[in-house]
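[step 3/7] fold_predict: job queued, chain A
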Amino acid sequence: MVFPHRKFARPVLVVTGASRGIGAATASLAASRGYAVCVNYLHAEDAAQSVVSAITAAGGEAIAVQADISVEAEVVALFSLVDNTLGPIAGLVNNAATLETQMRLDAMDSTRISRIFATNVLGSMLCAREAVRRMSTRHGGCGGSIVNISSGASRSGSPNEYLDYAASKGAIDTFTLGLAREVAEEGIRVNAVRPGFIYTEMHAKGGEPGRVDRVKSLVPMQRGGQPEEVANAILWLLSPEASFTTGAIIDVAGGR
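[step 4/7] structure written:
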């Protein structure tokens, strides 16, 4: 892949929450297509280092950086470290997200809801802010691309399971549209991918590791998706092939 507007050998991509699942698949695919990748993680250092090791073993370039994206100072430090080690960024994938045990709204407390929104919404907005400050031609940047990871839950509402998570992803949909229009004249494209039922470890965090197998009959294609299938859509949106695409939300959900 050629990025003629970049003066560095490898365009730099930050992928948040990249130690596992969709984030890890995205980081690996991006590296194979010529990106130098920042693999951000929260707690899973060993998993993040494994992603980096696999990338470097294949001849790519990657670093693992710990940061809690819900904390502004850590987001600022993350991007500063990338500046100093990999160089100016060309892209951001806002993948880091969290959910908690399945329950109805009337059983939730405010601290749980706040935790969900702190990572899924505030964290994504803070990371996008730092990316815009670096990539926008208004700030002397060379342009770039942001891909936010939403969820099919933003359309279904996820009743009886994850209303708070679904609402946070609805906010990501709206944020994607607004930011895309805000920076469209500044060389930055902003899009989103909205995965459906994907085989990742996040379902275990919600208390049901086998959730995809339980609900896959609701998918017209009658199966769950793989992280790599989502990563392919993300990489297309990042690429010059999507040069006239901004403010788009691509469903990778098997027709659901």
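[step 5/7] annotate
The mean pLDDT is 94.
The longest helix spans residues 110-135.
exit 0
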